[in-house]
Amino acid sequence: MNDDELALFTSSADAERRSRLAEQLCLLTVVRDDVQSRLQHLRTSVTGTPGYQWRSTAETGYAERVAELGGALDRASRELEAACEAVQESLVQLGGVE
Amino acid sequence: MADHGEGLVVSGGSSTRVGTDTLLALESAMRMLHTATVSWQATLLRIRALNAVSAPAWSARDPGCDVLAAAIAIDSVEAESRRLADALSAAAEGYGRAERSSEAAARVAAASLGWMIGRTPLLAALVALSALPALTAGVAIWLFRQALFAGGQPVGAVWRRPAGMSVVTGSDGHSVPPVRDRDGDPLLDPRLLTSPLAAALVRAAVASLDDAGIGAIGLPLAGSLALGDDGVGLLGVTTSAAGVLALSRPLGLLRETAVTVTPVRAGQDGASHPVPAVPPAGLADLASRIPTLSKDGGQVRVERYGPDASPAWVVYIGGTVDWGPVTATEPWDLASNLAAVAEEEAGSYRAVVQAMREAGIRPGEPVIEVGHSQGGLIAAQVAASGDFTSVATLTFGAPSGQVPIRDGVNTVAVEHTDDIVPGLGGTSADAAGRLLVRREVYASAPLPDGVSLPAHSMANYTETARLIDSSPEPRLRAFREQLTSVVGTSAGTAAVWRGTRTEGR
Questions:
Q1: Whether B136 and B70 share a structural domain
Q2: pLDDT over 80 (residue B399)
Q3: Which domain holds residue B27?
Q4: B137 with B179, same domain?
Q5: Packing angle of the helix pair B63-119, B196-207 (nearest 10 deg)
Q6: Angle at B23 between CA B20 and CA B25, to 5 degrees
Q7: Residue B487 banded pLDDT, cuts 50, 70, 90
């Protein structure tokens, strides 16, 4: 393989990688936004009717589990955000985005 | 005003689950979250398949690490949201199962007691004398109340206030007059008629009237159970009401007559043409537009929305006006109450149908019927008749449990558990088809002074409708959305109709 052929091959591989990263970023952004939206919904409305006080053991137990669920969603949101940043970084390194 | 701290309990609506609206809304939200996590997992699999580098070759900043960590966190959310939704669903199923079991046991116990009373004339007489106010519903309670109200006046006239007797009908005009003596002291402790226990007793007593009849003619209890609501359904509240009518009419009581309707709502100019109306935005709006008790005003309000070529309608039907057993000119009377429960064409029913036809409602045009008390029973019967294209029915405190639900009619029944009136219709024949929303109004709040059946008042039902409007429960939200889609957002017109009995049918 001569230099020209090597450059062409490298360029083609980079283009392929850029395309895959761009698709990953697009999909990650959709999932991240949806996760963040669900997290917001969980915090504002899933904890019950506004003004309602959790009273029984079952209700307080449920509230604790909802809080844990919120924590897991929050973690997922942060990991997805980090994944989006990593993909963007990779694209920058490939010269795919400004 | 009553205690609003207690939530709404929702059941039926093609579901075997029972729960507070909050619990059912939480379960729905958890299911939606779980569905979303499954979709996220699928998307993350696609994302991971796009990785250019396999896991062993990942660098510290490779996106694959973060995507994997997110997938693990989402797996955890998926499992936990499913567990929570299942737990909430199991709670609602358990609640429903326990309620159905206790209701079935209560029905059998009441039927057995009714049959025993029917078998033993002395016991029947003792029960009638000692427990009439608390245990005997329907006609018995109404006649008992009438006897108290009449204070020596001829029974049967439209109720008039005896001198010295206090009357509080409430600002809404829907409250039932109080049971008080000439000195203003209560003749009957209001708590006796305003509690979940009283309501349950009334429902059981009404449902077991037919069993007492079976016992009286000497048939075995098994036969009574087999023919009743839990058996083949040949006997029940309907036949009991028909029996009361058959016994009363030879005495000149509870007679049915022909009816006629006329538009009564005067515009600013005094004319009787329709007036502008804003589309109802929710159940509280619907509740607040039900005509109030009045001997001179109308009992039916008809609203029309949408284009002339394809209008949509909302029909509001008021409650009983005249509690007297002797038929006068008012179709919203005791005779109509019993005729409606007996599934005969009550005077009020015929008046509503006439008003709807004269208002211009034609088959094929969507109609939402709304009613309180007797009006709710009539609303349910009009929807069940199929004479109009009913798409939804909303009843407040209506004894309409025995009315079948037609396919395609979204039916919501609002009942206060401390209101005895819904129980006058007996047990529910189509519990699954009807979305039942319950609330105990006076769980902890003191009863208001001077109103004998405060839990039945339209003011309290309107307050419950407000709570429903703010409920996140999915089926209640769907009912509000259906209302909006039917009536639209453009102004319409409203007309009020008055039905009157004509002499000698």
A1: no
A2: yes
A3: 23-100
A4: yes
A5: 60
A6: 105
A7: very high
Q: What is the mean pLDDT of residues B400-425?
A: 93
Q: How far is B233 from chain A (nearest CA, A)?
A: 40
B7 lies in a domain?
Answer: no
Crossing angle, helix B63-119 and helix B21-49, to 10 degrees?
Answer: 150
Of the two residues B131 and B342, the one the predictor is more confident about is: B342
End-to-end CA distance of chain A: 32
Q: Has residue B70 been placed in a domain?
A: yes
ipTM of the complex: 0.84
CB contact under 8 A, B66 and A86: yes
CA–CA distance, B156 with A33 (Å, rounded to integer):
69
Same domain, yes or no: B216 and B82 = no
Predicted confidence band at B207 (pLDDT cuts at 50, 70, 90)? confident
Domain endpoint, select from B100, B117, B148:
B100
pLDDT higher than 60, residue A74: yes
Is B280 among the domain residues? yes
Q: What is the 3-state secondary structure (H, E, C) of B62-114?
A: CHHHHHHHHHHHHHHHHHHHHHHHHHHHHHHHHHHHHHHHHHHHHHHHHHHHH
Is the CB of B155 inside 8 Å of chain A's CB atoms?
no
- Residue B217 shares a structural domain with residue B289: no
- Boundary of a domain, candidates B100, B118, B134: B100
Lowest average pLDDT, out of B48-57, B241-250, B431-440, B450-459, goes to B48-57
Is there a single domain that holds both residue B120 and residue B70?
Answer: no
In CATH, the number for domain A3-93 is 1.10.287
Chain A touched by B40 (CB under 8 Å): yes
Contact flag A76-B67 (C-beta cutoff 8 Å) = no
Total number of domains in chain B? 3
Predicted structure pTM score: 0.74
